[in-house]
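Final report, Chapter 2: Outcomes

The project's central promise was a pipeline that accepts a single protein chain and returns its three-dimensional structure in a standardized token representation, suitable for archiving and comparison. That pipeline is now operational. To close this chapter, we reproduce one record exactly as it appears in the project archive, with the input sequence first and the structure output second.
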Amino acid sequence: MGTSWCGQTVLTTLGLGLVFVTFGSCRVLLIKFSANKDGKYEYLPVTVNVSAEFIKLAVCFTLAVRGFIAEQRLCKDVFSLSRSDCVQLLKWSVPGLLYFLDNLIAFYVIKYFQPAVVVLLGNFGIITTSVLFRLVLRRKLSRLQWSALVILFLSIVLLSNTSQTTVDHHKHHAVNHVVTSDDSGAESVGDICQAEKTTATSRNVSSDGGIIDLKKLKDSSVSFHFHQGHLLIIIQCVISSLANIYNEKIFKEGSGMEESIYVQNSKLYLFGIVFNSLSLVIHGMYRNKVLNCGLFYGHNVYSVVLIFVTAGYGLTIALILKFRDNMFYLLSSQVTTVVMVTASIYFFGFNPDLDFFLTSPIVLLAIYVYNIGKHQEIPHQQPCRSSQDNEQVCSEASALIISSDNPAE
């Protein structure tokens, strides 16, 4: 019976990882496919996220209500909120805000790099997660793990340098998505509804802060230049790590493991809808486009499928953080990396050079070393004699080793 349960657990874990990799890979590809030939989005990316949040909330709320009915719980017990309940509810606003920012940044990171490079540079999230584990959760890392993180960081910098030649230069200028008005200062409905514009031209203008001519940069003597794409990657990794760590913490702290994941997710996605909807109201260009063109103006087949894939991706991450942990999430992302490199070569004509092929395995190897380094510096367990005089010493030694294996959160 124990063997059967163990086998079922392994299969469940593998299935969860497979679903995560599938949704994660499809999400990156669909973001790329949903842009037009100029690399611009004819729809508002935030509408994808707010629609996905509605789908996730509908799914989780339905399953939560179904659970309440099965438990024969009264409505007044379910929906009555005390002051402490309201405080607990507000905790979910933090990951809700962070995930809102993370999902929105993802649409603009893809404009700077090929999808394969995006997921490889996304491995910087392992560094940010490890540092935040140390600072927030006080989890110690071995010296081997810190060494692996240094190698990983240097490899990502080198990989980023080699990947600059693969950026689509005409797409690079599409990031500042503001609507420009004509000389008279008036905007027509057609101007508002058309694809996002840019205030920067394709000229090599050095005075445009943040707009970088990568072709000119490639031909110059500068071997590496930090541009907006790198900054977005770093910001996204920090935000994503904070969101996942905080989300895992409130999923599991106190009586969190006893509370239904559908109830917890309903709280999270409620705030996700609030923050995404607020961006549509507060941002002037977003508000004008929705009022004049409609919420789903400019959407295509890829963006519609992207809405459901994003919803499935978010639900899968919640399951991982609830029943596994952040490290399982990061390790599963490495499989996504392999899938995306292969897909980029097939779909986007990505032609990696020798430096890319030499650097990418170093990134994956550093991640492998980081994971095997978890138990490298655990004190060696001394054999305990079975005599009665040493039973207390044996017990204390065993407790010390167990506590080193499972650091307190």
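Archive annotation: The CA atoms of residues 203 and 328 lie 45 Å apart.
This record, like all others produced under the grant, will remain available to the consortium after the project formally closes.
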